[in-house]
């Protein structure tokens, strides 16, 4: 088990956002977490990365508790986050966006940039384009490259399909599926898009009002009433 989240709770002031969340990701898996707006997806991703202070529970990464460690420590241990909205620097070029994400000396930066362009060949002809001039899909590729440039073992993806044209969503899905074959990576992704999640994930959970404690069995992902129930709607 690479990531083990046990009884995790978080709150904004007195208002709870996560309530005793339990889930795990095995090494090499793609784990999807399905949930509507406001259910706690971003809070969960940011808690695992270390941006949100948790109020209870445990997060183990590679068999070790990471609670209380800084974001940078978690990044060095091999956790990377592709944030919601992608957070590309709009006034920097694609190349500059990549370079600021890569630690190390010039030669190392050049080598890692080449490595990322091999993984994301579509970025090659966009290197001089400003981040803000990219389409949503192109920005998502850049955000993925920027995260992977630090060679994480666990990549957290917060709503990768948000604001992306349906035709390009399939391309992002294919790109991610390809990545899992090319590099050694474990992915936890949170999404509202059921088709995207089911297409990519080895296992799927649902989060509803900060509660995430049950996996949705594969067979039930194609059953509308079962999915509704998991999403917090009762018949
Ligand atoms: N910085 C914040 N301060 C106060 N409340 C927040 C903050 N961020 C999120 N929340 C609240 O926490 C809940 C979960 O939000 P969030 O994790 O962003 O959900 P999602 O990503 O699923 O849309 C929501 O009720 C939201 O309003
Ligand atoms: Mg969110």
TrEMBL record:
The keyword Cell inner membrane is assigned to this record: no
GO molecular function, one term: ATP binding
GO terms, biological process: L-amino acid transport
Keywords: Amino-acid transport, ATP-binding, Nucleotide-binding, Transport
All residue ranges annotated as the ABC transporter domain in the record: 3-234
Domain of life: Bacteria
Pfam families: ABC_tran (PF00005)
SUPFAM superfamilies found in the cross-reference section: P-loop containing nucleoside triphosphate hydrolases
Family: Belongs to the ABC transporter superfamily.
This protein's name: Branched-chain amino acid transport system ATP-binding protein
């Amino acid at each position: 088990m690479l990531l083990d989240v046990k009884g995790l709770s978080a709150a904004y002031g007195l208002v709870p956002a996560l309530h005793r969340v339990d889930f795990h990701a095995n090494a090499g898996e793609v784990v999807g977490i399905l949930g509507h707006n406001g259910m706690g997806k971003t809070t969960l991703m940011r808690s695992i990365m270390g941006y949100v202070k948790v109020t209870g529970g445990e997060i183990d990464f590679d068999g070790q508790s990471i609670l209380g460690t800084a974001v940078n420590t978690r990044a060095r241990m091999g956790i990377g986050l592709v944030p919601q909205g992608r957070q590309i620097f709009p006034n920097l070029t694609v190349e500059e966006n990549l370079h600021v994400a890569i630690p190390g000396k010039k030669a190392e930066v050049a080598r890692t940039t080449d490595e990322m362009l091999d993984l994301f060949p579509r970025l090659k002809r966009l290197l001089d384009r400003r981040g803000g001039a990219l389409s949503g899909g192109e920005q998502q590729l850049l955000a993925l490259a920027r995260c992977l440039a630090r060679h994480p073992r666990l990549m957290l993806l917060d709503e990768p399909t948000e604001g992306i044209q349906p035709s390009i969503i399939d391309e992002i899905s294919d790109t991610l599926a390809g990545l899992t074959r090319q590099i050694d990576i474990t992915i936890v992704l949170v999404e509202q898009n059921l088709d995207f999640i089911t297409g990519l994930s080895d296992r799927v959970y649902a989060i509803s009002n900060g509660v995430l404690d049950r996996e949705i069995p594969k067979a039930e992902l194609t059953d509308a009433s079962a999915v509704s129930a998991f999403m917090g709607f009762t018949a």
